[in-house]
Known about the structure:
Blueprint: E1 12-15, E2 20-25, E3 28-37, E4 40-47, H1 57-72, E5 76-78, H2 81-88
Parallel strand pairs: 4-5
Antiparallel strand pairs: 1-2, 2-3, 3-4
Amino acid sequence: MYNNINTDNLTIQHDKENKRFTMAINDEIAKIEYELRDDKMYLTYSEVPHNLRGKGYGKELVERTFEQLTKEGYKAVAVCSYIKAVARRNENWNSIIE
Length: 98
């Protein structure tokens, strides 16, 4: 089980120029990179800084990215294995994630 993490101050940023979503955690940056093809966003890579792994930040990053995709009206394809795993665990994301 994850340690109790404070997620209140975590926000997702969509950096369209660099095709990624970022989330600042203290002084570190977690990210999801993507490619746009055929009106879909292909989520290709996710990364949480080494010292923050295993604490629940990765799941938080993915779920907040999914929320942002919903707000922006995107459909997405999970290419990254971790993103796929998080999507499979929550049926709420079936409408936007392939």
